[in-house]
Predict the 3D structure of the following.
Amino acid sequence: MANCILCSTELKFMNTPTFGSGKLNDSSIVCTSCFKKINNVNPKVAFKLKNYSLNDIQNLLNEKISKNEYGNSRLDEIKEQILKLTNGSIYLGKREINELPEILARTEVIDNIAQGTYNNGQGILISTNRRLIFIDKGILYGLKVEDFPLDKITSIQYETGLLLGGIKIYTSGNIAKIENVEKSIARSFAEFVRDKLSQDKEVGKNIISEPNILDQLEKLAKLRENAILSEDEFNEQKKKLLEKL
């Protein structure tokens, strides 16, 4: 027998679609596995495969791959990130998670997650490399999203009760309180974000201080060029400045 026109697998009775359903318009044949792939992408095309050419089918499958790379796979990436954070469980806010590809930027990475209520809505609070976001995908009233950019957060606090806790996000005089968070998660989430905020501040200080030192080095170089500083004096001052980095 011939080979599958798509994957070159040798066609046998057990891997050939029945009743000629795997034939293309030029009488070439696809194997059962490739036929299933076509059917998964577009059942209508698979049902009338004999009306399509090899080029038509290849374009159809390539479009699906492209969509997965830039569309559906984004949701898969997000789910993988959350699975790692929740120890293999993805029960947290499935409706909200499905909305994340449209909410997050392509380069945004989730590094923590909590479930709770905010403004009487049940949803998830996620932390990314850019911000905190509360997402509430209500059954009746649609989608609610509120984000808190990291550079606008002045502090984050938590409180715990017997079983549940709460997280308070302070931003420029406003307070957002996420309640009914699992006790241990409220503590770990708040402490994680607090550490991240303190690290960002340290990085910011370093970024601010470096241009000042560079400016001073430029001034020293000009003083040397104008013969106001000798070479030895320049090197001594330069050494002192570089020690501050």
Notes: The radius of gyration is 30 Å.
